[in-house]
Amino acid sequence: MTSKRCPKGSAKSVLLFVEGDLLRILGYFPLAAIKTLLSRTKFNRDRSIRPRMLNRNLMFTGIVQGMATLVVINKKELFQTHTIELSDEMVEGLAIGASVAHNGCCLTVTEISGNQIAFDLMQATLRLTNLGQLTVGDKVNVERAAKFGDEIGGHSMSGHITLMANLVDVIKTENNRTLWFELPQESMKYVLTKGYIGVDGCSLTIGEVEENRFSVHLIPETLNRTLFGSREIGDQVNIEFDPQTQAIVDTVERVLANQKS
């Protein structure tokens, strides 16, 4: 294969997009060298780690199963216990120790009393996610952990929130809704047009990217099933970046930095 350089771009901001087996990178770096680099990483060697395929590292699919109401908050010295009410369907087969995502944040079941399920939240979780802003009566997006053989309708998500984004604009049209979110500039390298992103536990496709903002387009089904139908400007949402995009961006930046030194 002939080594071919990608179009010129800023070496400080390495942008990439993965679509099937096609890797396009804007920057001063040979495409052949990038493929060689990725072939040497665990990320690429483990063929089971692929978009839309379930493996032992996958926790959630990003397809929110519904909303649950927060019925009790028990504040303790070092943590809080949140109790939510789940539907009969979601409670079926649920056991203590199981994982359930709340607005995309992976939490562990600590107590089950009928349809009321309790979870302990440490101070770091309360500080770094919007779960710390909740009051009794609020709703959260919920998804039970994926099981082997489940269809992956979204993209693989760990339930580990990276940071929060601010909702800065809501554009309503007849058939859908567009939400614009704002992030710190240094995090935008992981936000790529038509790439995946986890927002409050929902796997979404990024619509447009502008400076430190990005948009997502939501259909009525998503608006009805999730919190997005009631989100307003000023709300904060939990963000989990696509782990494969994050791994590639970080690896390429590290290699470019080493080449310059």
From TrEMBL:
**Keywords associated with the record:** Repeat, Riboflavin biosynthesis, Transferase
Descriptive protein name:
Riboflavin synthase
**Residue ranges occupied by any Lumazine-binding domain in the UniProt entry:** 59-155, 156-252
> What pathway is it annotated to?
Cofactor biosynthesis; riboflavin biosynthesis; riboflavin from 2-hydroxy-3-oxobutyl phosphate and 5-amino-6-(D-ribitylamino)uracil: step 2/2
Keyword Repeat set for record:
yes
Lumazine-binding repeat ranges? 59-155, 156-252
Q: InterPro entries from the entry? A: ATP_synth_asu-like_sf (IPR023366), Lumazine-bd (IPR001783), Lumazine-bd_dom (IPR026017), Riboflavin_synthase-like_b-brl (IPR017938)
EC top class, in one word?
transferase
Annotated catalysed reactions: 2 6,7-dimethyl-8-(1-D-ribityl)lumazine + H(+) = 5-amino-6-(D-ribitylamino)uracil + riboflavin
* Enzyme Commission code: 2.5.1.9
